[in-house]
Design brief:
Layout: H1 12-17, H2 24-150, E1 160-164, E2 167-170, H3 173-184, E3 189-194, E4 197-202, E5 210-213, E6 219-224
Antiparallel strand pairs: 1-2, 1-6, 3-4, 4-5, 5-6
Length: 225
Amino acid sequence: MEIETPISPVRKTDKENVQPRQSPQQNAKEAIKPELSDKLLSCVHSEKEESGSCVHSEKEESGRVKAEKEKTKQKEKEAKEAEKQKKQAQKEAKEKAEREAKEAEKQKKQAQKEAKEKAEREAKEEQKKEAQKHKKEEEARQAAARLQKLGPLGRTGATLQVELETGWADCGQDEFKQVCDHVAGGGTKFAIQAQGTMYIIDWSQPNAATQKNVQSGKTRKLRVI
């Protein structure tokens, strides 16, 4: 009869501490785990760096695009401002040209008006000169005809005398003028006033002219010297 050796009971803690035996393949895998872990970490770091680089590049690209947009907007703004200034300049130039045209037209009309008024003044002056010329000519003609009719009375410094009892005496200037006016008008027999007395002058024969006192009826000889 065999004596059975009692089996020691395995404690729970011992079971937990007991490691299963691994195969060579498992050992190889376990050996390369740290290396893989390092590579993975390196890849992660590389990916992070690349990601950071990408993020940085994206930020740079975003900043560049934003700057380009701002630059484009600024150019558009400047172009609009330039166009606005151009239109304003064109408007001002047009208004200036219109003002200058109006002013030129105004000056032209003013010049035409002044020229017309000047021509009218000159025409009136010419007419006036012509009228004065004709008047002078007429006066000269009348003066010549008067002198012709006056005869000796028209001589420069001529004097009309009347024969009195005391001799020949000069007639006054008023009587002389009256006689000249009547004779120049073609009169040969006419009345004049001298010192309140009326006389009848007979000039039908200038070299034998006489005057008759209407009140007394006395006739006296007249002569021109």
